[in-house]
Amino acid sequence: MVKQVRKPLMAGNWKMHHNHFEAIQVVQKLAYRLEADDYDRCDVVVCPTLICLRSVQTVIESDRMTIGLGAQNCYFEEKGAFTGEVSAPMLAKMNVQYVIVGHSERREIFGETDEVVAKKTRAVLGAGMTPIVCCGETLEEREADQTTEKVSGQIKAAFHGIKADDIAQCIVAYEPIWAIGTGRTATSQEANDTIGVIRSVIRQMAGGAADQVRILYGGSVKPSNVSELMGMPEIDGALVGGASLDPDDFAKIIKF
Ligand code: PGA
Predict the structure, then answer these.
(1) To test the ligand 1 pocket, which listed residue (134, 171, 175) has its Cβ within 8 A of the most ligand atoms?
(2) pLDDT tens-digit series, residues 9-48
(3) Is the residue at 124 inside a domain?
(4) What is the pLDDT of residue 181?
(5) Is 103 designated active site?
(6) Domain count, the chain
(7) Is residue 175 among the annotated active site residues?
(8) In this structure, what CATH number is given to the domain that contains residue 193?
(9) pTM over cut 0.85
């Protein structure tokens, strides 16, 4: 509804790119290209790989950058015999503020179910961080007119049983799977319509919290299409993959 009260947020999802030397350089270059009023207008977040979080966090803090730090995933248990996993409290202890939860690559490649996504959402909130909960339909689902059903189901599952106040703190990213890394963007109208559906589902679950939740679009966001997307009333920012790897492109997106 009242978009002005929701500050735009641009999050860079670096996926499995950039080793820790490259990650430091990229965040430094990005900070060099941004000015105070960019941060006033827009929250900026980078999500490096797990092993780069420490180095990026050190650079962000020592240079007093206004860039938020996000992880791409975590496990829902606090600790224990879960070889290869990292918990939400461990990330929070390292001043990580955001965690991407339920990205379609996690769902499709690593078999994360709606139930796992719900547990991770709770774990991230429980550790005092902000989940960036991802949802989105496949091309087949879109063509079969199942987009609303698919994303509504994902959102209901992720936020089931979570208090409205906590839901208000969450971020959602609508990422149609057919638009991720394909160069094919949803039209701004398609993205806006589906995000409107997501907001109405959140309104059914959490009332007025729906006006606070920032809902991002993701899927082939580039400097050339970001302004049109950001001109839509429901779109509060972007989760950017490929174009966030290059600090020049990501800075242009932030300055949309
Ligand atoms: P893309 O990825 O911008 O490379 O399409 C977006 C995402 O998967 O978050």
Answers:
(1) 175
(2) 999 999 999 999 999 999 999 999 999 999 999 999 999 9
(3) yes
(4) 86
(5) yes
(6) 1
(7) yes
(8) 3.20.20.70
(9) yes
